[in-house]
Write a structure and sequence with these properties.
The structure holds two protein chains of two kinds. Chain A contains no helices and eleven strands. Chain A is mostly beta strands. In chain A, strands 2, 4, 5, 6, 9, 10 and 11 form a seven-stranded mixed β-sheet that branches. In chain A, strand 5 (42-50) and strand 6 form a beta hairpin. Chain A is globular and about 35 Å long. Helices cover 0% and strands 54% of the residues of chain B. Chain B has no helices and twelve strands. In chain B, strands 2, 5, 6, 10, 11 and 12 form a six-stranded mixed β-sheet that branches. Chain B has a four-stranded antiparallel β-sheet with strand order 3-9-8-7, with no helix packed on it. In chain B, strands 1-4 form a two-stranded antiparallel ribbon. In chain B, a hairpin with a 5-residue loop joins strand 5 and strand 6. Chain B is globular and about 45 Å long. The chains are: A mainly beta, B mainly beta. The A-B interface holds A 2, 4, 33, 42-43, 45, 48, 50, 55-56, 58, 90, 92, 97-100, 102-108 and B 32, 34, 36, 42-46, 49, 51, 90, 94-104.
């Protein structure tokens, strides 16, 4: 158990809908990262928050947004869902978020868009 | 941007045989490298990391990796694998507040 909690574990929804994925980082970790894992794209970095502020942004679509709350949990919002958004979404956390800090991953949320 | 390339997409290996997973990195500055493992239907777990110091890094579950600056490589090895090592393995480099992952290597251990 990494200490990073993601809910829900599975999500099935229809095209055009909006969903929210939730992540609780390890106790004491200030950084939260979101990754998308799909068969064709592999593990893609989406976004990084540090202590409530956005620190880095990757290949995140405009239909997607994220935030980190004062209690440090984070939510990833996916809207106007398309079939191609079906993937495993991982949250990871680390103490600081610098280049030499390791990230701890949650079990992921498997999103299926039908 | 820094990146890693995993040279093998699939590696079949017999139980108790050695295994090597190859990873090359591209970087012109100091580099921080990681190997993660993903077991079926699970998240990623850190196997080992290279931040600085000794070029031979030992990790969990009997894995080790060697950082080679001249060859820009960070290959992962295990002298004797078990069935339970069947998983996908990812090499990653730390780059500007994120980890960039390779495409992954699927290791299948057969009895």
């Amino acid at each position: 158990d990494s200490g990073v909690t993601q809910t829900p574990k599975h999500l099935i929804t229809a095209t055009g809908q909006r969903v929210t994925l939730r992540c609780s980082p390890r106790s004491g970790d200030l950084s939260v990262y979101w990754y998308q894992q799909s068969l064709d794209q592999g593990l893609q970095f989406l976004i990084h928050y540090y202590n409530g502020e956005e620190r880095a942004k990757g290949n995140i679509l405009e239909r997607f947004s994220a935030q980190q709350f004062p209690d440090l949990h984070s939510e990833l919002n996916l809207s106007s869902l398309e079939l191609g958004d079906s993937a495993l979404y991982f949250c990871a956390s680390s103490v600081e978020g610098g280049r030499n800090t390791e990230a701890f991953f949650g079990q992921g949320t498997r999103l299926t868009v039908v | 941007a820094q990146s890693v390339t995993q040279l093998d997409s699939q590696v079949p290996v017999f139980e108790e045989a050695p295994v090597e997973l190859r990873c090359n990195y591209s970087s012109s500055v100091s580099v921080y490298l990681f190997w993660y493992v993903q077991y079926p239907n699970q998240g990623l777990q850190l196997l080992l990391k290279y931040l600085s110091g000794s070029t031979l890094v030992k990790g969990i579950n009997g894995f080790e990796a060697e950082f080679n600056k001249s060859q820009t490589s960070f290959h992962l090895r295990k002298p004797s694998v078990h069935i339970s090592d069947t998983a996908e393995y990812f090499c990653a480099v730390s780059d500007s507040y994120k980890l960039s992952f390779g495409a992954g290597t699927t290791v299948t251990v057969r009895a």
